[in-house]
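Appendix B. Chain record.
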Amino acid sequence: MKKLEAMKRYRAVKDPRARLGQVMTPPLMADALLRLLGSSGGNWLELGSGSGRLAEAVRNSAAPLSYVGVELEPSMIDLCPRHPGFEYLEHDVLSAASLGCSLEGREFDHVVGNPPYGVHGLPPKAKGRLLQLCPDLEAAFHWTPIDLYFVLESLSRLKSTGTGAFIVGADIPCGAQSIPFRKMLIEQASEIECYELPIKAFGHRVEVQSYMLIVRFGRTTAQHVVLGRLDDEFNVASLRRFGRDLAVQNMVLTHHEFREMDEQLRRASQGVTMKDLGVSIIRGSRSRSEFSQLGVAHFHTSDFRNSGMEISLDGKGSSDYQQATVGDILLPRVGTRCLEHKAIVVSGQGPYSESVFRVRAPAKHQDRVVRWITSDACTGWRKSAAQGACAKHLTVTSLLGMPVPA
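Structure tokens predicted for this chain:
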């Protein structure tokens, strides 16, 4: 019930773009999407066209015969580029029946989009439309990834040999509830590519994990899926192929790299984990702001050093807060940019914030745990195991399950 109430409050946000979680497409990202799609000519459709960033990229690089953008907000349509053959319809994409009337049943050669993201409540008719487009989806309690709705609606208006390219959130490529969609897509498409975007792809003030999904349809069906990663300039940095079954479970390259790394480490550790060694992992008891308000000196993620791991604490012992002391290892719990850090307390004691984990090992396993946690391999494991679409975070469960090679 608390989660449902929180979602209701989230939906009460007045700004439609904030409520729907829509972020404008940076021009370089828009250009990269069209470059990776590689389609040109023909008739184009974009549902949720915003201020026309993708429309401009289509015009500049794809020589379209026509382009139709559908956008809910008139103020956004006013910002869209005006070119011959380009038109914009003011429409709610979630109103499927009237959208079909507005588009007059047209089919398109290519569809693109950077749809809204996040989990939202759908009107009953929109939920029915979603299940019509992908019957095996479970839309429990009327909540669903809204970008999935936009992608399905876009693909439904595509010709049988058309192409599509979308900027999407994490739910589509790796969410468990989107497995039926990934399975359906792999069974129908000729080529599928999914690229991880840089965490700062939408600007230095925004941290969000997003992806480019490229789909091409034809007379054959895909036997594999291409998964990759783009660098800060939106060039392909990594690229690998995976079989259909693995891609149905997850279309994120980092996920499969982590799975392979984890399997190798578990063989090297003979199945021994942090939990097996009796390690305790405790999160800090107060936030940074709470400690500051109390005037209590504490260790926070910003105190991790860029070089060197040994630290001294000068706090006072207190039973009011979780304390770190000599021999303890401190790890960041949250923060995409600091997850690789670690620290070993060599003198003193003191409290630490809730953004930090204290790792304490039994004396007989101390050296083994320290060697492992301070290794580059462990850093890579922790960064890959971190969860979250925005600021990445680690959990106690995942760390206790971490293999510890001998």
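Further analysis of this model is presented in Appendix C.
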